[in-house]
Amino acid sequence: MDIDLIFKIAAIGIIVAVLNQLLIRSGREEQALMTTLAGLIVVLMMVIQQISSLFDIIKSTFSL
Amino acid sequence: MEVGALVGFGLIAAVLCVLLRKTNPEYAMVVALAAGVLLTIPAIGQVQEILSTVFALTAVYAPMQQAITVLLRAAGICLLVQFSADTCRDAGETALAGRIEFAGRICVLYLAVPLITEVLQMILTLLQRQP
User: Fold this and answer.
1) Is B93 exposed, middle or buried (0-12, 13-18, 19+ CB in 10 A)?
2) C-beta atoms of A20 and B72 within 8 A
3) Residue in B with minimal Cα distance to A36
4) Interval B56-75: pLDDT, tens
5) How far apart are CA B10 and CA B13, in angstroms?
6) Which of A6, A12, A58, B123 shows a CA-CA span of 20 to 30 A to A52?
C-alpha cells in the first residue's frame, strides 16, 4: 500500500490547477484546456495500472 | 495489515479529495478511485488466507465445495460491481451505477442457475419417491 500514489495525484492536480489559472489569466484559454487534459491523462494512466492489478488479484482470488 | 495504516490512508485521501474538489473535481474523483484501489488490494490478500482455510475445512464433502465455489464467484462479482457502481455514484452518474448493478445481478443469477436446477431436481426425486 503506497500513499505516494495519492500524494502524486494530488500534487499533479494542484499544479494543473495553478497552471490553468495562470494560462487563463494570460488569455490562453486553449492552452489551459490542453494542460488540464494532459494532466488528467497522466493521472488516469497511473491509476489504471493499479485498477488492473486489483482486478487481477480479485480474478485469481475468487476464481472468476 | 494494521488498521491504523488503513484509517490514516483513508483520512489523508479524503482530505486531498476535499482540497481538490474546489478547483478541479475530476482529480478528486481520481484520488478517491486510487485510494479505494490501494485500500482494497491488501484486504483481498487477507481474504485469500481465509478462503484457503474454508476450502480445507470443507474438503471432506465434495458437493459442499462446489456450492462454495459458486458462492465465492458470486462474492467476487458483487465486489467488482459494488466497487464500480460506488465510483460511478461518487462521480454523480447514478443512472450508470444502477445499470452496472443490474448487469451484476444478472451475472450472479446466471452463475446460480446450475445450483437452482440441482435443488429442483432434488425436490422432484423426493416427490417421486413418495407412494
Assistant:
1) middle
2) no
3) B24
4) 888 888 778 888 889 899 99
5) 5
6) A12
| pTM of structure | 0.85
C-alpha cell at B86: 460506488
Q: What is the ipTM of this complex?
A: 0.87
Domain layout of chain A by residue ranges: 4-61
Among positive and negative, which fits the CA dihedral A59, A61, B3, B5?
A: negative
Residues of chain A that touch chain B, judged by Cβ-Cβ distance less than 8 Å: 1-3, 5-7, 9-10, 12-14, 16-17, 20, 36, 39-40, 43-44, 46-47, 50-51, 53-55, 57-59, 61-64
Cβ–Cβ gap A3/B72 under 8 Å: no
A6-33 confidence digits (pLDDT tens): 999 999 999 999 999 999 999 999 999 9
DSSP structure string for B23-83? H-HHHHHHHHHHHHHHHHHHHHHHHHHHHHHHHHHTTT-HHHHHHHHHHHHHHHHHHHHHH
Q: Residue B38: which residues within 8 A CB-CB, separation 6 or more?
A: A1, A2, A3, A5, A6, A50, B9
- Tell me whether residues A3 and B9 touch, CB distance under 8 A: yes
Cα radius of gyration (chain B):
21
- Average pLDDT estimate for B109-118: 92
**Identity at A28, one-letter amino acid code:** R
Contact A59 B44 (CB under 8 A): no
